[in-house]
């Protein structure tokens, strides 16, 4: 395996020790992808792999640990199934070359704020898909001093009954922005409302004033997909507008973020999103439009008026 530079294993029943033996004898390896490898418990990238730069791990159901000692790794991708409760522990040491980091897992916002700034100080692009988060606020030790783009998706956000709602979740998202002083682009995939009590219109006296936090002097582009009338989403948008003097473009997409309609297909909008759209538009007119500075452009993406509502799901 002296000349092997890229290794992709899809649905391969290789075990952890077998993978370790393979990697230790592939000194020219630069990229490794593991998808649906259901026998792997741990992955260790040895320091001997001096050229190794990219690791992708997706849907390895019993995986518990990923450890990398490769000095030049610059890209990492981890997708962990929502249905799998097992937490994957990550050990990267001080990854000075890490530039792009993608993680889809539970409690990733807490992990990112507490661990990544110090272990990956040169990170430039961070993408996080969070299934749920913890109640306690993370301890932010340092900042992402070079982070330019931050993508957060909460589309599958679940709140167990022991979780707090409302401002706790808002301040967690604001902490991510506060920890990124050089941020230029922020994209958020918002969660859907769970009931009428989540709507900003349910509590018209809800505080929408300036929330204590830093000024995002370099932030220029913000996009919120699946924008809705949820208090969390409206308050966060208002906070960004109040704290971002350099904002150039704010895009509020009240669809599901998929392609628009064409001659052969309808818009990618599910029933819940379609039904929420009028309230989302009303929230934009009532709470958002008046706060947009004259130097910034507001783009609102609506469901296509030519498309009929999605049909109801079939009965079970």
Any overview of this molecule?
The structure is a single chain. Mean pLDDT is 85; it is low at 159-165. This protein has one domain (43-301). It is of the alpha/beta class and 316 residues long. α3 (167-178) runs parallel beside α4 (231-243) and α4 crosses α5 (271-288). The strands form two sheets. An eleven-stranded parallel β-sheet has the order 1-2-4-6-8-9-10-11-12-13-14, with no helix packed on it. It has a three-stranded parallel β-sheet with strand order 3-5-7. The chain has five helices and 14 strands. The longest helix is centred in the C-terminal third of the chain and has 18 residues, at 271-288. The N and C termini lie far apart (52 Å).
The total beta strand count reads 14
Beta-strand content estimate: 15-25%
- The total of helices stands at 5
Main beta-sheet strand count, sense and barrel state: 11 strands, parallel
Helix content percent band: 10-25%
């Amino acid at each position: 395996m002296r000349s092997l530079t890229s290794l992709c294993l899809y649905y391969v029943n290789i075990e952890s020790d077998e993978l370790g033996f393979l990697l230790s004898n592939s000194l020219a390896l630069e990229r490794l992808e593991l998808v649906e490898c259901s026998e792997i418990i741990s992955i260790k990238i040895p320091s001997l792999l001096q050229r190794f730069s990219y690791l992708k791990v997706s849907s390895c159901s019993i995986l518990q640990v990923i450890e990398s000692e490769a000095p030049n790794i610059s890209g990492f991708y981890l997708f962990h199934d929502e249905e799998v409760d097992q937490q994957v522990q990550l050990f990267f040491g001080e990854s000075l070359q890490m530039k792009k980091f993608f993680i889809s897992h539970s409690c990733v916002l807490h992990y990112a704020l507490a661990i990544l700034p110090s272990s990956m100080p040169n990170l430039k692009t961070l993408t996080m898909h969070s299934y749920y988060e913890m109640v306690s606020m993370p301890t932010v030790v340092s900042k992402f001093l070079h982070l330019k783009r931050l993508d957060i998706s909460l589309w599958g956000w679940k709140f167990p009954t022991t979780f707090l709602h409302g401002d706790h979740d808002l301040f967690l998202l604001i902490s991510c922005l506060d920890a990124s002083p050089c941020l230029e682009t922020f994209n958020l995939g918002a969660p859907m409302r769970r009931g009428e009590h989540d709507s900003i219109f349910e509590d018209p006296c809800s505080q929408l004033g300036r929330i204590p936090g830093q000024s995002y002097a370099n932030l220029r582009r913000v996009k919120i997909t699946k924008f809705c009338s949820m208090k969390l989403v409206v308050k966060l948008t208002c906070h960004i507008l109040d704290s971002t003097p350099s904002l150039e473009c704010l895009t509020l997409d009240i669809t599901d973020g998929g392609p628009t309609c064409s001659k052969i297909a309808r818009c990618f909008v599910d029933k819940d999103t379609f039904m929420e759209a009028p309230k989302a538009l009303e929230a934009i007119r009532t709470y958002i439009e008046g706060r947009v500075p004259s130097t910034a452009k507001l783009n609102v993406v609506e469901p296509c008026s030519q498309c009929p509502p999605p049909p109801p799901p079939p009965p079970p």
